[in-house]
Write a structure and sequence with these properties.
This protein has 361 residues and is of the alpha+beta class. It folds into three domains: 103 residues, DNA Polymerase III, Chain A, domain 2, CATH 3.10.150; 122 residues, Roll (DNA Polymerase III, Chain A, domain 2); 115 residues, DNA Polymerase III, subunit A, domain 2 (DNA Polymerase III, Chain A, domain 2), CATH 3.10.150.10. 16% of the residues lie in helices and 41% in strands. The strands form four sheets. The chain has an eight-stranded antiparallel β-sheet with strand order 4-1-2-3-15-14-13-8. An eight-stranded antiparallel β-sheet has the order 12-9-10-11-23-22-21-16. A hairpin with a 2-residue loop joins strand 17 and strand 18. The longest helix has 14 residues. The protein is elongated and about 80 Å long. The relative contact order is 0.11.
Length: 361
């Protein structure tokens, strides 16, 4: 079940090629390997099993998972008695499932062997954190394909960087990874990272090997191999939108701001999600109004000694980034003016930068 769970998000849902709705079951060291792909993303996981007679079959991935989830027996037996059919036996239950020819299953670029790639080894937790801190800022606009993924690069040797933007906000995180140096930056697709994130959850605290080549990015753990094809196109010059020296600096408790924003945004306009930030000495007033439903306001205690300043923000853009910061962190907000980009950082993580554009309310 665990092996089949991992492949569910990878299999082709549109059914353009029937074989892509199937999982390939084949012999592997210590048991069997389950492989699935939609040609953009692919995954191969190892599952312990006793192989009585070696052979390969392909079965509908979703149906096989549903069956495995429903049967009460501890073990299942897969038996290919005749071409095109597989018997699945589990306790008193017996299923006969259609099997497509495994020769039609595509060959995938899995594993860590590569001709033109760079191999990086890092803790799964580090990679998981970097994905969490950037993926939410990826554009959902399919026409802006160069913004539909996370940009991976090494701004300097020993530093791995991930950047994502949708044109309204930008998330950038740097982490020290000894000896890493990519020849060029690459754009990793949103779907690939969502599936990789599930794999990293399964990996726990182990190290993971990342291979970056000209066409794909591959991840490998002792039990799972994964690949995603890269997004073609040039990632925009993101450095120019990061403000160098904000005029107004604010310090606020993450939990206080997060909770207040979630409350106030309940009465924000459902289309714009706009919330007004009214800055005063020692105080931030958050307010929102919706002509159809009402209005709300709340004061949040802050450290600020500058002049009064009023800005508007899409509440979701600020809530999203606060959600990936730790409880109790001190958040530093930097504002230039009512129309310039705002900067958000946590005092405990200077290598994570978030930029969000204000909106007119």
């Amino acid at each position: 079940m665990r092996g089949l769970h991992l492949v569910q998000g990878v299999v082709e849902r549109r059914n353009t090629l029937p074989i892509l709705s199937n999982v390939l079951v084949e012999p592997a060291e210590g048991g069997i390997a389950l492989t699935a792909t939609d040609m953009e993303v692919g995954l191969r996981g190892l599952v312990p099993a006793q192989m009585k007679k070696k052979g390969s079959v392909t079965l509908n991935a979703r149906k096989l998972y549903e069956i495995a989830r429903e049967v009460t027996a501890e073990e299942v037996t897969l038996k290919s008695a005749q071409v095109g059919w597989v018997d699945l036996l589990a306790g008193r239950s017996k299923f006969r499932i259609v099997s497509l020819d495994p020769k039609d299953f595509p060959q995938l670029p899995l594993g860590t062997a590569t001709v033109d790639g760079t191999s990086v080894r890092l803790a799964a937790g580090t990679l998981r954190e970097m994905v969490d801190k950037t993926l939410f800022a990826v554009s959902s606009d399919e026409t802006r394909f160069n913004l539909s993924g996370v940009f991976l690069s090494t701004p300097e040797a020993g530093t791995l960087r991930m950047v994502a933007t949708d044109g309204h906000r930008l998330a950038l995180v740097d982490r020290r990874v000894p000896e890493v140096k990519l020849p060029r930056g690459v754009i990793m697709p949103r779907k690939g990272l969502l599936e990789a994130r599930k794999l990293l959850d399964e990996t726990g605290d182990e190290d993971v090997t990342v291979v970056v080549s000209s066409k794909d990015v591959r991840l490998a753990t002792p039990a799972v191999s994964f690949f995603m094809r890269l997004v073609e196109g040039e990632f925009p010059d993101y450095q120019q939108v990061i403000p160098a020296a904000p005029r107004a600096q604010v310090r606020v408790n993450r939990d206080d701001l997060f909770a207040a924003l979630r409350r106030i945004s309940l009465l924000a306009s459902e289309r714009s999600r706009g919330v007004k930030f009214q800055l005063e000495r020692g105080r931030l007033e958050l307010s929102a109004s919706n002509p159809d439903q009402g209005e709300a306001s709340e004061d949040v205690e802050i450290t600020y000694a500058g002049d009064s300043l009023t800005l508007g923000f899409n509440a979701r853009y600020v809530i999203d980034v606060l959600a990936v910061h730790g409880e109790g962190e001190v958040i530093e907000l930097g504002f230039t003016d009512e129309v310039g980009p705002a900067l958000l950082r946590a005092s405990g993580d200077p290598d994570y930068t978030y930029v969000v554009m204000p909106m007119r309310l």
